[in-house]
Write a structure and sequence with these properties.
Oligomer: single chain
Radius of gyration: 26 Å
Helix content: 10-25%
Number of helices: 2
Low-confidence stretches: 1-9, 52-60
Number of domains: 2
Mean pLDDT: 84
Order of helices and strands: HHEEEEEEEEEEE
Structural class: alpha+beta
Strand content: 35-45%
Largest sheet: 11 strands, antiparallel
Length: about 230
């Protein structure tokens, strides 16, 4: 019980325990004691309902954006910032061009010190152009504006390596399995997967393989790293 209600103030839990102990200690031998039990049970019910309401509020603060993948068979996820599971170094922006075609720009950081800039130990970029429906989108453009690209950056021991998708072979793809409209907004979330081979720009013989990449992105165009409902 305490584990389920860990976020509730300790004084409220103490009050519940006091009421329970008082109920146990009362022997219903006359009408007065019956009334005492009824009053205490009513108080207990009010406290429990209050706790249930807080549990419900906590559950509503669910994570709306998630992203994970394997890089060379190693699990990779963006950093959690601080101790807040809602604060994850991930952003997704949706824009519209040509009237009805959306494109999505996803940026993620992973760093032992929670850096979220160009000095981050790892940075992953993924941009998907001309999204009009579910389906497969080939990622084969060079890195740049209004292009479909994937890029992974490693900053390790002062050595910066940049890995980009091939512009010759269709070895990198995004599969969008669901479009998620947001009520009262023109923004549309996406759910899907990505797989591909990215090549070191300075040494094409050096590459990384990305697979088992799954994402669900419902909170878009936000200026913070909070991935939960607000």
């Amino acid at each position: 019980m305490y584990r389920e209600l860990g976020f509730i103030k300790k004084d409220k839990i103490s009050r519940i325990n006091i009421i329970i102990n008082r109920i146990i200690g009362i022997k219903p031998t006359n009408m007065t004691n019956y009334l005492k039990i009824e009053i205490l049970l009513t108080g207990l019910l009010i406290l429990v309902l209050g706790c249930s309401e807080k549990i419900e509020i906590k559950q509503e603060s669910k994570i709306l954006n998630s992203f994970s993948m394997n890089i060379n068979d190693q699990i990779w996820q963006p950093s959690v910032i601080g101790n807040d599971s809602c604060s994850v170094a991930l952003r997704c922006e949706m824009s519209t061009i040509h009237g009805d075609k959306n494109f999505y720009t996803i940026t993620m950081y992973k760093d032992s010190k929670s850096k979220t800039d160009f000095e981050s130990e790892n940075i992953f970029y993924l941009q998907i152009m001309d999204v009009i429906s579910t389906g497969t989108y080939v990622i084969s453009d060079p890195f740049g504006d209004f292009k479909s690209y994937a890029r992974f950056v490693k900053n390790e021991s002062g050595n910066r390596r940049i890995y980009d998708n091939s512009t010759i072979h269709a070895s990198s793809k995004v599969q969008i399995v669901e479009l998620i409209p947001k009520s009262g907004s023109a923004l549309i979330g996406i759910k899907g997967s990505f797989s591909g081979i990215l090549y070191n720009r300075a040494n094409p013989k050096d590459s990384i393989v990305i697979d088992n990449c799954l994402f669900s992105l419902k909170k878009l165009n936000w200026n913070s790293f909070c991935q939960c409902a607000e």
